[in-house]
What does this fold into?
Amino acid sequence: MQSIKHEAKRNAELSTNVDNFRSRYKESSYEGTIEVSFPAGNIKTLDKNLFKLLAGSNKVTFKPTWHQRPDYVSIEFYNTTMFWQLILYINRIPSIEDFRDLETIYVPPFNLIVDIMRDKISKTEIVDLDEDTSDNSEARYFKIYPLDDRERNIIKAMELLT
It folds into this structure.
């Protein structure tokens, strides 16, 4: 039987991985010593195609065995746990804990998911948060500008104390 570690690694490499649909941001620490690239909290591709996904979805009666287990729905309809987040998203359910006591849920067909995969965001399109991003509405939710003069002075003073 395959371990969770191997399944997670395999799923991360699939083109259907939810992180492939997210914007990416890069942040460097002060003085440029560490660089971190992270996916955004928003999923633009799904937001853009929400109504297309809803219109093409099948309305399915909620089973008691799916109580707080959207991964079971994903396995039943797609033979993988990969799409549990999509199930929650389509049904506008904010967390696994809220995936319970439902009458029906919407489940998009796999061919529709494959169709919107073509719209994913390239990992090479990265917004650098160390640059002034005040004109970039994509980055405004994370950090508008890394350090102002006051913050730089505090960091320099702290370095002098150590």
User: Anything to note?
Assistant: The chain has a mean pLDDT of 74. Strands lie at 24-28, 35-39, 58-61, 104-107, 126-128. Helices lie at 4-13, 44-48, 50-56, 70-78, 84-90, 110-117, 149-161.
